[in-house]
Automatic annotation (TrEMBL):
Function: Catalyzes the methylthiolation of an aspartic acid residue of ribosomal protein uS12.
Chief localization: cytoplasm
Keywords from the UniProt entry: 4Fe-4S, Cytoplasm, Iron, Iron-sulfur, Metal-binding, Ribonucleoprotein, Ribosomal protein, S-adenosyl-L-methionine, Transferase
Binding site for [4Fe-4S] cluster 2: 167, 171, 174
Cellular component GO terms, alphabetical: cytosol; ribosome
Source organism, top-level taxon: Bacteria
Name of the protein in its database record: Ribosomal protein uS12 methylthiotransferase RimO
Top-level EC class: transferase
CDD domains noted in UniProt: Radical_SAM
Family statement drawn from the similarity comment of this UniProt entry: Belongs to the methylthiotransferase family. RimO subfamily.
Substrates-to-products reaction catalysed: L-aspartate(89)-[ribosomal protein uS12]-hydrogen + (sulfur carrier)-SH + AH2 + 2 S-adenosyl-L-methionine = 3-methylsulfanyl-L-aspartate(89)-[ribosomal protein uS12]-hydrogen + (sulfur carrier)-H + 5'-deoxyadenosine + L-methionine + A + S-adenosyl-L-homocysteine + 2 H(+)
Name of the gene: rimO
Species for this entry: Roseovarius atlanticus
Classification via InterPro entries: Elp3/MiaA/NifB-like_rSAM, Methylthiotransferase, Methylthiotransferase_N, Methylthiotransferase_N_sf, NA-bd_OB-fold, Ribosomal_uS12_MeSTrfase_RimO, rSAM, rSAM_horseshoe
GO molecular function: 4 iron, 4 sulfur cluster binding; aspartic acid methylthiotransferase activity; metal ion binding; protein methylthiotransferase activity
């Protein structure tokens, strides 16, 4: 049984489709690379195509054409996207490219001139036009029924819920705002309607995502829209409160540590509300000079004060974050400040990138780039520290009682689960290896933790 350490490389998602296409039905395959925000884009594209009568294939061989939704966050992710496009061309031959890397069409066609079309991120209409040209639709309204919740690339018991596009920050290492634009928040009532449909279809956990979740509604000037028996303000606190009343777990990702984040913590401490005591906050570094060179809207010392305030309100709060080591100009002293900060912050879940240049990023032009061997050494030391903290944190949970959601049950009857402290794919797991008869995927059960590892837990059903 393998553990699930933090791994922030772009993930590969394929459509979870079991239906058999009808005779003569045009079929489209999908490969989705990158972050959950891209995964939601893939789901929207597939839902639109499914509504037009297309079948969806989980592999290349059964598809009339393949859509590759690309990632362009890092140069290594760009290379992985090019490899995925090349694999799709070799296996199928008819490939449409979309996603973040699609914002640089010449970069793609320079390597793969045979692709049928290239579109940018969240350009759904252009993707549909390209599919229509390559594989004309042939709908049968009496047979082609669309699931109410649309086509999902995640297991049916959890779903990503994207609340906004774009970002207003100008971090020097990031080109996402150039590709996805400025912050554009969805109306709150539209988000809640989607969330209700998902919960009604069997979703037990909603994973709230955006590029900057805590900035939700800023571009709308926190306008108020009618909802049910009252009004709903387009603000992350109001939206979270409303989502937490739908009867599902609500997990918040990509939250910048703005002062108003403290207003979310009482919701997480309220066990009658579904908002989980979990915050995914991309701190990136702790030394003020590095943060300044990054153009990050944060400061390490004030952040420690905020963390202390959050934990005072909600002692069982789980904090997850990501960091960059080897940023241009990072000195050994600045890196040591980061290690000392991590010691004091005692974050529960931590991931780490080694800095990479990305074409178009302003950080490329900064002086004093760190040698690769120094980046690797700092990454190793950082992860060693983070792992030691994780070991102590998980060991302290032995003997505790936890609610867990079941993600999988293998042929040997071992159930892979997650506690409220664990997001899918990026955090750890809790395994139940006996007395799993009658358990089903998506069920939420109570366990007592009886063993802990570096990143994972084991427990027994109560």
């Amino acid at each position: 049984m393998s553990t699930n350490p933090p791994d922030l490389r772009p993930d590969l998602a394929r459509a979870r489709v079991t239906e058999t296409p009808r005779k003569g039905q045009p079929v489209i395959g999908m490969v989705s690379l990158g972050c959950p925000k891209a995964l939601v884009d893939s789901e929207r594209i597939l839902t639109r195509l499914r509504a037009e009568g297309y079948g969806i294939s989980p592999d290349y061989s059964g598809a009339d054409a393949v859509i590759v939704n690309t990632c362009g966050f890092l140069d290594s992710a760009k290379a992985e996207s090019l490899d995925a496009i090349g694999e799709a061309l070799a296996e199928n031959g008819r490939v449409i490219v979309t996603g973040c890397l699609g914002a640089e069409p010449e970069y793609i066609t320079g390597t793969h001139p045979r692709v049928l079309a290239v579109t940018g991120p969240h350009q759904y209409e252009q993707v549909l036009d390209a599919v229509h040209t390559a594989v004309p639709p042939s709908p049968d309204p009496f047979i082609d029924l669309l699931p109410e919740a649309g086509v999902k690339l995640t297991p049916r018991h959890y779903s990503y819920l994207k609340i906004s596009e774009g970002c207003n920050h100008k971090c020097k290492f990031c080109i996402i705002p150039d590709m996805r634009g400025r912050l554009a928040s969805r109306p709150g009532h539209a988000i809640l309607r989607e969330a209700e449909k998902l919960v009604d279809s069997g979703v037990r956990e909603l994973l709230v995502i955006s590029q900057d979740t805590s900035a939700y509604g800023l571009d709308r000037k926190y306008d108020v829209n009618p909802w049910k028996d009252g009004d709903l303000r387009s603000h992350i606190v109001d939206l979270s409160r409303a989502l937490g009343q739908l009867g599902a777990w609500v997990r918040l990702h990509y939250v910048y540590p703005y002062p108003h984040v403290r207003e979310l913590i009482p919701l997480m401490a309220d066990h009658e509300n579904g908002v989980l005591p979990y915050l995914d906050i991309p701190f990136q570094h702790a030394h003020p000079d590095v943060l300044k060179r990054m153009a990050r809207p944060a400061a390490g010392a004030r952040t420690l004060d905020e963390i202390a305030a959050w934990r005072a309100i909600c002692p069982d709060l789980t904090l997850r974050s990501t960091f960059i080591v080897g940023y241009p100009g990072e000195t050994e002293a600045e890196f040591q400040t980061l290690l000392d900060w991590l010691d004091e912050a005692q974050l529960d879940r931590v991931g780490c990138f080694k800095y990479e240049n990305v074409e178009g990023a302003r950080s490329n032009d900064l002086p004093d780039h760190v040698p690769e061997e120094v980046k690797q050494d700092r990454w190793d030391r950082f992860m060693e520290k983070a792992q030691a903290i994780s070991v102590d944190k998980l060991a302290a949970k032995v003997g505790s009682v936890q609610d867990v959601i079941v993600d999988d049950i293998d042929e040997d009857g071992i159930a892979t689960c997650r506690t409220k402290a664990d997001a899918p794919e990026i955090d750890g797991c809790l395994f139940i290896d006996e007395n799993t008869e009658g358990l089903s995927v998506g069920e939420i059960v109570t366990v007592e933790v009886d063993e802990a590892g570096e990143y994972d837990l084991w427990g027994r059903r109560l």
